[in-house]
Design goal:
By secondary structure, the protein is α+β, with helices and mostly antiparallel strands. 25% of the residues are buried. It starts with a helix and ends with a helix. Helix 1 packs across helix 11 and helix 3 packs parallel to helix 5. The longest helix has 32 residues. One of its GO terms (molecular function) is nucleic acid binding. It comes from Astyanax mexicanus.
């Protein structure tokens, strides 16, 4: 009788959709590894911001996952045409075609035009899952950019585009925590010269070893820098994964499993709907494809596609059969609790 009650409660469809999970978020960290400059890049729009005198209201950001070099453009619109044009002029024309370009599922990046441009240059477009922007490294750069812009503009918020070059120079010449080198050193094999450097440093012939020619010196220096950076990135990834996974739990779903998907409802006064009283989950949906350790493709029960979802947004949906099976795996500790309570009551007497 007790097991039947537990099975009924666990498989209740209403309870499963309205009750939030009390467990750690699902999904361990899966670092994205890059072994050379502009092998993996990310792109994202920031904005809208106050429109400037030049008509700019958005920032388009490209970031190299290996060197941490950034390309930042102040633009008027966040459209597919702008994204495709700036990708060609700021990334492809300067650094070549990245092997992978990571973006969110925003309309400009999902457009046929943008994907056609990537296909022409040979870059594979990879998309982050909805409500999980951590995959895209540009999210961290965006936060740094907004903080720096805030420090520059003061109360003149419509002048932010004037300071983009200075901010980019600062970020490109500052040593990055993950690699230990500045993006300029990683990309060019040397630090970018500043006016102070030109005044304080004496002129040299460009090499410390007279037996080596400048091209050999540069190649050797860049090779050593990249080797050190790869080791530093691996150490950084391990450290971040360790601390990230402390607050996460591993979860795996099999093909055909039923799941419920976390919703993100919004209040609607016209329809008399409030997000506080809306269902926490929707479903059930069926897992039809496992794309990685943390990404799954879902479909409705009738087979229509739902899309790719990160495991952090998923919870198992229990039927009577699966709930009964789970109860069999869980030891029933209730008799032990009753015995403990009985002993405590006897001791109190």
């Amino acid at each position: 009788m007790r097991k039947d009650v537990k099975t009924y409660v666990l498989s209740c469809p209403v309870c499963q959709l309205i009750k939030p999970s009390q467990k750690k978020p699902a999904g361990l960290l899966v670092p994205i590894h890059a072994s050379e400059p502009w092998e993996v890049a990310g792109v994202d729009f920031v904005g809208p911001l106050p429109r400037t005198a030049s008509g700019n209201a958005y920032i388009l950001v490209f970031v190299d996952y290996f060197s941490k070099w950034i390309e930042v453009c102040a633009v008027r619109e966040a459209t597919a045409q702008v994204a495709a044009s700036k990708f060609q002029s700021e990334v492809f024309a300067r650094h070549g075609a990245p092997k992978y370009l990571i973006s969110d599922r925003g309309t400009p990046f999902m457009s046929e035009l943008f994907n056609q441009v990537l296909k022409i240059v040979g870059s594979e477009h990879r998309l982050t899952t909805a409500y999980h922007p951590q995959t895209n490294a540009t999210e961290r750069v965006n936060r740094t950019l907004k903080t720096a812009i805030c420090a520059y503009v003061g109360d003149k918020h419509n002048t932010w585009d004037k300071y983009i070059p200075q901010i980019c120079f600062a970020l490109r010449t500052a040593p990055h925590e993950s690699t230990g080198f500045s993006p300029a050193k990683m990309l060019y094999g040397r630090e970018l010269a500043t006016p102070v450097d030109l005044l304080t440093q004496p002129s040299t012939d460009g090499t410390d070893d007279p037996l080596l020619s400048p091209p050999q010196t540069l190649e050797q220096s860049m090779q050593e820098t990249h080797d050190h950076a790869r080791a530093a990135l691996q150490t950084s990834h391990k450290r971040k994964k360790h601390y990230y996974d402390l607050k996460r739990r591993p979860v795996t779903f099999q093909l055909g499993d039923l799941v419920r998907l976390k919703t993100h409802p919004r209040s609607d006064a016209v329809a008399n709907l409030t997000a506080k009283l809306a269902c926490v989950y929707a479903g059930p949906y069926r897992v039809v494809q496992k794309l990685s350790e943390v990404n799954y493709r879902l479909a409705n029960i009738d087979g229509t596609d739902v899309g790719v979802v990160h495991v952090v947004s998923l919870q198992p949906f229990h039927t009577w059969t699966t709930a009964e099976s789970q109860n069999k795996r869980r030891p029933d500790r209730s008799p032990r609790r009753l015995q403990t309570l009985s002993r405590l009551s006897l001791c109190s007497v």
